[in-house]
Amino acid sequence: MNIRIEIVAVDCLMVRLFDRIDEANMPWMLAAGRRLRESFGEHLIDLVPSYTTLMVHYDLRYLLAGDARALIAQALDDLQPDTGTAGRSHSLATWYDPSVGPELKALAQRSGLSVSQVIERHSRHEYQVFALGFVPGFAFMGLVEEILASPRLSTPRKRVAAGSVGIAERQTAAYPQASPGGWNLIGRTPVRLFDQALDGYSLLQPGDRVRFAPVSHDEFIRLGGDDTPLEANT
């Protein structure tokens, strides 16, 4: 690990821990995040984790850039992975069907698998939540098997239904609310992923682990799912 500090803005620094996305990064990212929060204390405005970086937004009224760099260096000195703090485990009921996952068949054809094999491979893995972003509660998860990896759509949809489950490259995610999006959609979950009643508003947090559990259409509806079809992106 080669820790580097990069300038983002006059009151914001990027701490780069890794150059490559890997599930093994997470214990280090969690440890670094905890130390930075403790080091900056009340002078930390926001700490934004990503796959390989942590963006530190600090209060310029109390800290100069040199002070912030010194706090980061001090916090990350002799950093050790956080193996004692396990995130929560989640099981997201998911209805895999072309009517709500219009790229499901295309992904199967591209990978040389049957639709049922795509569903089995996507749902058998436990995914790491790396970061939140794009829209509130949108959890970037990975890594899907290489055979399922799919490039983003060349033309994003103007509206993706809430709960839509998709794949982009080796990432997977579920849209917490209706929004534009360019991921390959393969199903839909009825689980509410973003709610002001939730602690932190988002059900999923960095460090959590997620499984997508296949359910029938009847079970999906029973759980409150919306089965309004979504057309393929053409």
Question: Would you mind describing this structure in some detail?
Answer:
This protein has 234 residues and is of the alpha+beta class. It is 21% helix and 28% strand. The strands form 3 sheets. A 7-stranded mixed β-sheet has the order 5-13-6-7-10-9-12. Helix 1 (26-40) crosses helix 2 (65-76). 35% of the residues are buried. The model has no long low-confidence stretch (mean pLDDT 92).
Q: Summed up, what is this model?
A:
With 234 residues, the chain is α+β, with helices and mostly antiparallel strands. Helices cover 21% and strands 28% of the residues.
Characteristics of this structure?
13 strands; 234 residues; 5 helices; 7-stranded mixed beta sheet; 28% strand
What Rg, in angstroms, do the CA atoms define? 19 Å
Shape: elongated
Helix content: 10-25%
SSE arrangement, N to C: EEHEEHEHHEEEEEEEEH
Arithmetic mean pLDDT:
92
Topology, number of strands: 13
Termini Cα gap: 43 Å
Class based on secondary structure composition and strand pairing:
alpha+beta
Sheet with the most strands?
A: 7 strands, mixed
User: Order of strands in the sheet with the most strands?
Assistant: 5-13-6-7-10-9-12
Number of helices: 5
Query: Which consecutive residue ranges, at least 5 long each, have pLDDT under 50?
Result: none
Proportion of residues in β-strands: 25-35%
